[in-house]
Give the backbone structure.
Amino acid sequence: MKKKPTILIADDNPENLGVLANILGKSGYNLIFAQDGAMALASIKGEPPDLILLDIMMPGIDGFEVCRQLKQDAILTEIPIIFLTAKTEKEAVIAGLELGAVDYVTKPFNQKELLTRVNTQLELQAAKEELREALAVKEEALAAKKEALATKDKLFSIIGHDLGNLFYGLQGLAELLVNEGTQPDIKERKANLQLLMQLASNGYDLLTNLLNWSKSQTGRLQAEPTTIILRESICRNIELQHDKADSKGIEIVSDVDENLSVFTDINMLDTVFRNLISNAIKFTEASGTVRVTAEQIEDNLVEISFADTGIGIKPENIDKLFQVNIVHTFGTDGERGNGLGLVLCKELVEKCAGTIGVESEVGKGSRFYVRLQTRE
């Protein structure tokens, strides 16, 4: 059932208050009364009404001043004000309307006229509110559509550019290996094969991220949490990134208690760990170190940390790390990044009821951390 509008009646004459209460009370309105301007202002700021019937001639703060103060308040300025006056002079009516009042009613009150003017203003106010809500919904829908289009553009950009470059590199290396002489340089052939394996690994990671991100955007990626031993998942994902680290001479150190566990989705967790380890390797210079640790910071909360001795992140870029529309970045060995990995990490961690963050200083490395619950 829709709530009846609230009307504030401000008049210093008790007889007038009684007449208005009798007329408006029969229509079921919620009524608030004030006998001077100060009381009216206090009532309005305490609980803003839907409409104000305001006497002009009141002791202390008169109706004009009350109206002036309300119209200077960004929150209260939209409340419609109907002036009550015994004056029929044109100047008083004009002065009230110039201050922002929407209408006026003269005393003695005509019941039909009063109700008509009150109902008209309340209906207009309700229509304005409906219009504001409709516009807000429309703006929200437009924003969602804009975001969806940006996501779609980003997806096509990655598919067209990053996957294109990847296959171009694979094709080039394959042709090079096929066209080598009957007595190829073994050392050079091994280096080309290693590069071929690395490109294939990068392609697999990129394709996996694209598929998972696409599922996440369309709501088809749902978490199925179970209890997971952290050490096992971390060791498994470190092993998957071993070749990348080895090619740059980077040492990956893991220090995780074998008894620590989290309650989360195993596939999502592996994807997050794989991306964060890969990201640390990418932005760490040769002979650097990536350290993975975990500790219980609260009774039901574990923090997993991925710290590197890399190049760090500029302060102005930290807020952009988890946004899908950031520009391409390059690792310390020229590795190309599209920013999708970290975006996916944030979405997956949040689907698992966790949080992700980063601490970094240019030239002194970065530390990404993930906080997950240990139980349901």
